[in-house]
Amino acid sequence: MHGVVFAPLDSKSRVCVALSFMILSMLLLASPIVEEDEGGLRGVILAYALGGMATGIFEPNFLSCITPLGSSTKSLAILGIPIGISGLLIGGFFSMGPPLDMPATGVYSFVACFLTVAMGIMAFAIPGVPIQEGSAHKGLRRLVSDLRQFRAWLPQLWSYAFVFLLDMLVLSSVSPGVWLYIYDEATVMIRPQVSLATDSFLAIFNTFNMFGSVTGRWLSYHTSLRHPIVYTIFTGTGVLLMISSRYLQAPLLQCLATYFVMLGDGLIYGSVSRHIDENIPKEFNLTGISYWCVNGDIGAIIGTNSISTLRSYMIGN
């Protein structure tokens, strides 16, 4: 709905709006309101609502905004996503663990500062090259027009987007998903009489997570374009390793498992991005990317809501 609510704005301006929402979300989480018994929950809900809107607006508009800059630009840009996320997860978990023991509010404030820098880069360093548009309409009329012309873009895209839905379901439920709630003690038993602080273990876990995602996204633009269903073999391998690691009582095996899951994710993400740019008419670029992202959001919602069930299954209560 970003194309309807923010119809007067171009994709570049919408990206800045999204960053503003995320900055507000981080500042709200860093504020004292979330620590108050009465108002804290409302503050968290509002923060998550702002963060959700930011995510929904940012990704399709950012990807569409940089499409005219060429595949080389996009192949590098999509590498920044796992590097930024994993860099935050790795640095965040290390910072919250010993010896720094930084509070989570410090991490939120740190993110808000970097998002402000990102907004400046987006506004002043990224060229705003307009993309070809097939309709002169804006807002809801433009959306309706693109939906009426679905035969021009949907048949070539729906199966790619569905694979991404399944991919996001796996990511949100098991990588890291449920494992953040299984390893919720102060330490993780690596082997008999050898333990590691949970925050440190998760930092290592997220390092493998990052390398898998970066490798997959890089390969997706440096190999022949294939249907993303091919790459689900890596996702499936990772899931099997994760399940095995739990029953074998081998937590470090999960580091290899998340590498495979994220390798598959990176290949799937990059192949869908390439497919849209190379095979979907340019006038439907933003609509196609938005449809792809909505499928990912659906998978993520299903996966997130399955975490409690998976946790009960894995630990038996």
SSE blueprint:
Blueprint: H1 2-5, H2 11-30, H3 40-66, H4 71-96, H5 104-124, H6 139-148, H7 158-174, H8 179-182, E1 187-191, E2 194-197, H9 198-220, H10 232-247, H11 253-279, H12 285-305, H13 307-315
Antiparallel strand pairs: 1-2
Helix pairs in contact: 2-3, 2-5, 3-12, 4-9, 7-10, 7-11, 7-12, 9-11, 10-11, 11-12
What does this entry look like structurally?
With 317 residues, the chain is mainly α. The protein folds into two domains: 1-127; 151-317, MFS general substrate transporter like domains (Growth Hormone, Chain: A, Up-down Bundle). It has 13 helices and two strands, in the order ααααααααββααααα. Helix 2 (11-30) packs antiparallel against helix 3 (40-66) and helix 7 (158-174) runs antiparallel to helix 11. The chain crosses the membrane at residues 15-34, 40-63, 75-95, 107-131, 157-182, 194-216, 228-245. This is MFS general substrate transporter. InterPro entries: MFS_trans_sf. Keywords: Membrane, Transmembrane, Transmembrane helix.
